[in-house]
Structures are given as C-alpha cells and as structure tokens.
Write a structure and sequence with these properties.
This protein is about 50% helix and about 10% strand. Helix 9 links the parallel strand 5 and strand 6. By secondary structure, the chain is α/β, with parallel strands linked by helices. The mean pLDDT is about 95. Helix 3 crosses helix 4. It starts with a strand and ends with a helix. The protein has a 6-stranded parallel beta sheet with strand order 3-2-1-4-5-6. It is globular, with a radius of gyration of 17 Å. It has 11 helices and 6 strands. The protein folds into 2 domains: about 150 residues, HAD superfamily/HAD-like (Rossmann fold); about 70 residues, Putative phosphatase, domain 2 (DNA polymerase, domain 1, Orthogonal Bundle), CATH 1.10.150.240. The chain binds calcium ion (CA). Calcium ion binds next to loops.
C-alpha cells in the first residue's frame, strides 16, 4: 500500500545542478583541490563535508579539517548563489508541479530527502511549492550523520513519515542517491535530468529510469498500477 513519495531536491525539483557543478569546480580550485564537472554529477547527493573530504583525501592524503570544510563549503555556496543571481535563480524542473499536484491529489504524502544544507534552496521550496511540503517531512544535511550513498537519509525520511520502505517510492536523479534509496529498501525511480548516461542510474540499482519529470508524469498511472 503506497503512502508517500520521497523526493530528492537538486536535479529533481530544481534544475540547480549546472550551478552546483560550476560552483564546486571554482570553489575547490581556490583551496588547491580539483574536481571536474563530471565528478560533481558522480558525487551528487553526498553532503558538502563528504565531498570535500573525498577531494582532500585524494590530493592531501587526509580528511579536511573542520575549518577547511566550513571555508570551502562557504565558498561553494557563495559561488552557487552568484551563478544563479546572474540568471535570477535556479529554475523549477519542468513538469515537477504537475507531478507534485498529481501525487497530492492521490492523497499521498510528500517527503523531501536532500543532502543539501543550503538555506536558499530550502527557502525556495516553500516559495515555489506553497503548501506542498511540510517542515516535519524534510530530511536535510543537518539531520544525518552519513549522507547519500548511505541509506540513513532515506531511512530517516521513512521514519519522519511514519511509514515502512514498502509504502514509499523515491524519485532521484543521481547515482549515489539511487544507491542510498535502494540500500534503504525503497522502490526507486530515477529521472535522468543531467549529463550522465542512463546506465549510471541503472547500474546504481534504479527500478525505473525516465528522461525527465514529464516522462514520469506520463507513466505515473502505469507505475502505480
Ligand atoms: Ca539530486
């Protein structure tokens, strides 16, 4: 019996990943680390600290210090905000409002499970989708010890909603996000809104892969049947 949809945020609700890619590449370079745009997409879903530690291990052979993590993540957030300041803001993913309205009309709960700790994006949710999400049904970087690809964020999403894995469907766009959801035992739909091949999502364990949110909407009746 389906009770809830658990939505990832970046790359699912907002077309914000191009900004994250530019911001990460630019910010880590200032601190003597390096990351390609493709690596940003492959690491999508990790917490900021998790990503920074992986880069620090690769270049420095050690984890980043708490100060380094704070500074680099602040530089990344600033670069992200200035990227979208020039364009207005991160746009809503095409088709997402229809998917959300459809899910709500079916009486299903909407839960957010994101690795993001950027307040601007969290504020955007309420502005763009008023009444659609409630703060007690949100899992962010502030709630978990181990971010995606660990199952903790999705397990916490289930817990907050008071449901079991078999009563939920996850919508993700990133390989590590799919891995996290599958590790939590949840049926996982991937929307491939970025530059990676579909195989990256299938290989991560996705149960379905759609080209975008519109394609998911068109297949929703079929999916729920
Ligand atoms: Ca994502």
């Amino acid at each position: 019996m389906l009770k809830a949809f658990l939505f990832d945020m970046d790359g699912v609700l907002f077309d914000s990943m191009p900004g994250h890619a530019v911001a990460w590449v630019k910010a880590v370079e200032r601190y003597g680390l390096s990351m390609t745009a493709e690596e940003v997409y492959m690491n999508e879903g990790r917490t900021g600290a998790g990503t920074i530690n992986a880069l620090a291990q690769r270049t420095w052979g050690r984890d980043a210090t708490a100060d380094e993590i704070r500074d680099i993540y602040a530089a990344k957030s600033e670069a992200f905000n200035s990227y979208f300041l020039a364009k207005g803001e991160a746009p809503v993913m095409p088709g997402v409002a229809d998917v959300l309205n459809n899910v709500r009309a079916r009486g299903l709960m909407r839960v957010i499970v994101t690795g993001s700790g950027q307040h601007s994006l969290l504020d955007n949710l309420n502005r763009h989708f008023p009444g659609m999400f409630s703060p007690e049904f949100m899992v962010t970087a502030f709630d978990v010890k181990q971010g995606k690809p660990f199952p903790e964020p999705y397990l916490m999403g289930l817990k907050k909603a008071g449901i079991s894995a078999g009563e939920a469907i996850v919508v993700e766009n990133a390989p590590l996000g799919v891995q996290a959801a599958k590790a939590a035992g949840i049926f996982t739909v991937a929307v491939n809104t970025g530059p990676l091949p579909d195989s990256a999502l299938w290989d991560a364990g996705a149960d379905k892969v759609y080209a975008d949110m519109r394609a998911l909407l068109e297949d929703l009746d079929n999916l729920l049947a």
